[in-house]
DNA sequence: TCTGGGGTCCTAGGACCC
DNA sequence: TCTGGGGTCCTAGGACCC
């Protein structure tokens, strides 16, 4: 049996831990540049605030119901996610971290007979150790565990756990799962299935394999088999290295000036370098894109994109920034108001296994760069991101965030203050209270 | 005025090899 | 009049996930 553990309204729950007065209050969390709603508490969902809606479109609703609004704080969410995952790992050794707020557990080795009671124990423990509420779906396959988890949220919120252990409980969950809520059915397939009078997961599993494979392809067939209780996806215990890495941002204001776009692009390329070095990979290709604001239909639109090859795979910040700026010069056109850019690297290979070129005159430079960036990364880890950076990155490229909560768990200065008369070293402060 | 940022896998078609 | 049969690799696009 597998369990899918899912943190309830994860980002909103993270914010609430440190502001308990927000219990039972509607909370939303915003995307970069405070653009769209990307997370909602139950109370915000009850106000019919949709996922992904731009903040400015629901401004009056926010005011009317006194919804608490947060900019996204990924340092906080990432750290709390680690705590949840570590806590789960302490309870069940075999686990796959599936996303920032979800994990699959392998319960087969566990000496428990009452899975429902064990699910409750996990829930209580995570709540006690981290302050994050979680829900569990337990079932013979990952796709069914996903469906069981969704069933909890839709029909058994108070209990927080649902177990699919036989045909009877499977049919309950399948019949209660609309096709578009199945793990593996998106908007496109959802519309297609609705057009064929297939409303629920229960309807879908009745269809013949040949029909499924013809229309939903091999991935769809695996999904249906999993819904029928046949394991197609095992647990992936080791996180495998990424095959591509992308850093992209919208600009808070549209940019027209090449030098400002250069700063942004250099920053994205440098960030790709950090990610590459972190997973010990080198890139063979760099892909740059730059475009105008597609929402402003009256503005002239332009979508520029360019792929360049490195002569030898690299993760040097110098190489990446140089190549990104070269690509930028090739696609930049005067007279447009640019809104977003991004750098993607691909053709990734392990750093100790790169194919070099014959008569490689750059080898000394590569070795030197490697040492330089080991030092740069170490300094930035210790002193803060971008303390050491490439000059083209400018003074430090940031997004627009007005409502960000403190980094309670990752910065000394942001530690939650319980008694202002005592600082974090336990020293008494005079005259501050 | 204001609209996110990452990833994965599969398939079809074209260019090329013998 | 009649024009083979087997591969690989790469890319773009489309589906999906959080």
UniProtKB/TrEMBL annotation:
GO CC, one annotated term: cytosol
Biological process, per Gene Ontology: DNA repair; error-prone translesion synthesis; SOS response
Cross-referenced Pfam families: DUF4113 (PF13438), IMS (PF00817), IMS_C (PF11799)
Keywords tagged on the record: DNA damage, DNA repair, SOS mutagenesis, SOS response
Protein name as annotated: Y-family DNA polymerase
Signal peptide per UniProt: none
Transmembrane parts of this sequence: none
Gene3D superfamilies attached to this UniProt entry: 3.30.70.270, 3.40.1170.60, 5' to 3' exonuclease, C-terminal subdomain (1.10.150.20)
SUPFAM superfamilies with a match to the protein in the record: DNA/RNA polymerases
Keyword hit for DNA damage: yes
Organism: Runella aurantiaca
The keyword Heme belongs to this UniProt entry's keyword annotation: no
Family: Belongs to the DNA polymerase type-Y family.
Cross-referenced InterPro entries: DNA/RNA_pol_sf, DNA_pol_Y-fam_little_finger, DNA_polymerase-Y, DUF4113, Rev_trsase/Diguanyl_cyclase, UmuC
GO MF term set: damaged DNA binding; DNA-directed DNA polymerase activity
Domain UmuC residue range list: 2-186
